[in-house]
């Protein structure tokens, strides 16, 4: 079965991204497919490579990046939500005249259409938020 | 894509204190391009999103409430509002914006987009969907 | 030794206003702001609770947040005073401490 | 045509669980997760409400979130089944839709 | 600085679902270096922060609950817990961690840090502060 | 009178930073002093210069930067909260081996001690959060 996942809250502040990560790992472990993980609202902040969590805590962005690499997950950050919150890739930085980008490996920025497309193509859509 | 699914956007939060209502609308507008069977649900504090007369100038916020009246142009015409949620908050339909859509198949007659349903009716709407997105 | 309390959550969704009103002292002030302004409306399931529990304190509501949410001034319960940000500042200055109920 | 509902808020702070239980249909399942797991505890002010409103649905609780919060397994109300993440996935797969009450 | 103010850290939220409890503790630990008169208040869902037996391994979270037992070493020794909040949640003192501090002035006797107060008593504690920080 | 202000939530997602901004403006306009604004929890995200809000919306970071310049406000971002969430200045980026920084003009990063110090020195401490 194909799952589409929405993450609506930022890392550490809410448990949403942890719960989503646990769900995705369990889905993959039980033979399901995860067609996309869509990061919306503050969820876009999961995809910053500039975070430096305490060493004795889980490394949320790195966990997602590693899981994406291992399973070829499509981690999509909503462009509109990301612009509001300051999450950019190099393309966006160039286009908007910003002097830096902060997106992490394994994430890509795209439009809200990718959320709707995910809802259409996935057998189940599940949101982790606040 | 020729699949047509029933999408429900569930709105249970008040506007302005948090961004969920505003960013939900952004999803609905983009989603309209996908020709799906779209409904919106307003219950609990979500019914406050539809009040008329919102004026955000003094608070320094962006007033996104006019967008609700544009939904008809995007063929988003089913806004289910829960009667019990209105009652608990002392609101009536008169307190909400007048949101309409033009029915092409009926000589462009203007028809109301807001459909007031009971709590049981809202549960029926929710149970009839393929995809439920909550904000 | 009065306290200014602020509440920014809708009482229809969240217990914060009830908790605040359960901890106020005679002579304190409570300012409803952001989504907390819904607690100032009359004619609903919360109105009597607020009026009862808030009987010994002065209740205020931030006008800017009332307008933003499309609440008609006539719907704000009797006895609740609407203030602007400058008056909010003045209240914070003239109390002994501010407690923000988050 | 059953729905899996999830609730992630404490019912002592927030109305979400009550709202969810007011909208479930016979045969639906409700999974309490994150801070929602407090709604599964027995012997408190919410227990009877949850038992009454949830009588026609199957109630589940995410074990990982119960342990995290130091709730002894014996404090989870009778009739509420503890599941792990793989079982959560299985429930999501076998229902017709998932509705997340946020 | 020789000013000594009464600081109260108010905890009304459950742990783990959100970060407020954990980041509140970080403030308390840093604040301890400033030799102020520090108290902590636990009411509403904040009392859940103090439960014993928290095990976050399966949820993949950081278990910060042992920090509460270290507070005594930082001379944070007044943890006010509201009786009514415990009662409403079906909790008793036995469900909470045993948090103690060593009283230097009493031959290093171990004394309990948790002080259970009624709702009215909590209101008295709150009204007796100079600075109230809420989490 | 001297006010100390805490902002506990990120921009746009919660109204907290808007309310704090309105309060600070009103305090300054009525002859009070604002000794410091301390950004904690997700509040640290107010201080990113990489955000690109829609043009017809308020520009929250720019509003704070301008107000700080005009009134010499001390806008302090908590370092511990900022590390967790990926908000860095150049010093921090160098120290942590990160290849970019994202702090905006008018903000500085410092320790939690600045919050306690603010509480001691200000006549009133007020928190805007969620």
Lay out the secondary structure:
The complex is a heterohexamer, with 2 copies of chain A (about 130 residues), 2 copies of chain B (about 140 residues) and 2 copies of chain C (about 100 residues).
Chain A: E1 2-7, H1 16-29, E2 33-39, H2 60-71, E3 75-78, H3 79-85, H4 90-96, E4 107-110, H5 113-121, E5 124-128
Parallel strand pairs in A: 1-2, 1-5, 2-3, 3-4
Helix pairs in contact in A: 1-2
Chain B: E1 6-11, H1 20-31, E2 37-42, H2 66-70, E3 79-82, H3 83-88, E4 100-103, E5 109-112, E6 114-117, H4 119-127, E7 131-134
Parallel strand pairs in B: 1-2, 1-7, 2-3, 3-6
Antiparallel strand pairs in B: 4-5
Chain C: E1 3-7, H1 16-21, E2 29-32, H2 47-53, E3 58-62, H3 63-68, E4 80-83, H4 85-94, E5 97-101
Parallel strand pairs in C: 1-2, 1-5, 2-3, 3-4
Quick structural overview:
The complex is a heterohexamer, with two copies of chain A (130 residues), two copies of chain B (135 residues) and two copies of chain C (102 residues). With 130 residues, chain A is of the alpha/beta class.
Please describe what this structure looks like:
The complex is a heterohexamer, with 2 copies of chain A (about 130 residues), 2 copies of chain B (about 140 residues) and 2 copies of chain C (about 100 residues). Chain A has about 130 residues and is α/β, with parallel strands linked by helices. Chain A contains 5 helices and 5 strands. Chain A has a 5-stranded parallel sheet with strand order 4-3-2-1-5, with helices on both faces. The model of chain A has no long low-confidence stretch (mean pLDDT about 100). In chain B, strand 1 (about 5-10), helix 1 (about 20-30) and strand 2 (about 35-40) form a beta-alpha-beta unit. Chain B has a 5-stranded parallel sheet. Chain B is of the alpha/beta class and about 140 residues long. Chain B has a single domain, classed as Hypothetical Protein Ychn, Chain: A (3-Layer(aba) Sandwich). The longest helix of chain C is centred in the C-terminal third of the chain and has 10 residues, at about 85-95. A 5-stranded parallel sheet of chain C has the order 4-3-2-1-5. Chain C contains 4 helices and 5 strands; from the N terminus they run βαβαβαβαβ. Chain C has helices spanning about 15-20, 45-55, 65-70, 85-95, and strands at about 5, 30, 60, 80-85, 95-100. The interface of A and F includes residues 53, 54, 83, 84 and 93 of A.
């Amino acid at each position: 079965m194909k799952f589409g996942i929405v993450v609506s809250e930022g890392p550490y502040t809410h448990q949403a991204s942890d719960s989503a990560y646990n769900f995705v790992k369990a889905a993959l472990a039980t033979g399901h497919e995860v067609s996309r993980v869509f990061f919306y609202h503050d969820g876009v902040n999961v995809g910053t490579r500039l975070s430096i969590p305490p060493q004795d805590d889980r490394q949320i962005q790195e966990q997602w990046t590693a899981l994406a690499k291992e399973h070829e997950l499509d981690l999509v950050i909503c462009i509109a939500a990301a612009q509001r919150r300051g999450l950019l890739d190099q393309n966006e930085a160039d286009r908007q005249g910003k002097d830096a980008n902060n997106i992490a490996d394994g994430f890509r920025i795209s439009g809200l259409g990718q959320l709707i497309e995910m809802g259409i193509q996935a057998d189940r859509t599940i949101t982790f938020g606040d | 894509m020729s699949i047509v699914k029933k999408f429900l956007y569930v709105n249970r939060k008040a506007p302005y204190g948090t961004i969920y209502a505003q960013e939900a609308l952004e999803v609905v507008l983009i989603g309209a391009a996908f020709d799906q069977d779209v409904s919106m649900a307003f219950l609990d504090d979500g019914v406050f999103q539809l009040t008329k007369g919102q004026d955000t100038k003094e608070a320094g916020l962006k007033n996104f409430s006019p967008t609700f009246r544009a939904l008809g142009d995007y063929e988003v015409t089913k806004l289910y509002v829960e009667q019990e949620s209105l009652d608990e908050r002392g609101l009536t339909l008169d307190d909400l914006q007048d949101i309409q859509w033009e029915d092409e198949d009926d000589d462009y007659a203007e028809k109301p987009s807001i459909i007031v349903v009971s709590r049981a009716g809202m549960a029926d709407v929710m149970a009839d969907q393929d995809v439920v997105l909550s904000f | 030794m009065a306290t200014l309390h602020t509440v920014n959550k809708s009482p229809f969704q969240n217990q914060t206003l009830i908790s605040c009103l359960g901890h106020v002292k005679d002579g304190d002030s409570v300012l409803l702001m952001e989504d907390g302004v819904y607690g100032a409306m009359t004619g609903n399931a919360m109105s009597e609770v607020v009026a009862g529990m808030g009987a010994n304190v002065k209740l205020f509501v931030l006008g800017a947040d009332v307008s933003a949410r499309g609440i008609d001034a006539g719907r704000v319960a009797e006895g609740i005073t609407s203030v602007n940000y400058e008056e909010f500042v003045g209240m914070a200055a003239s109390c002994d401490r501010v407690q923000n109920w988050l």
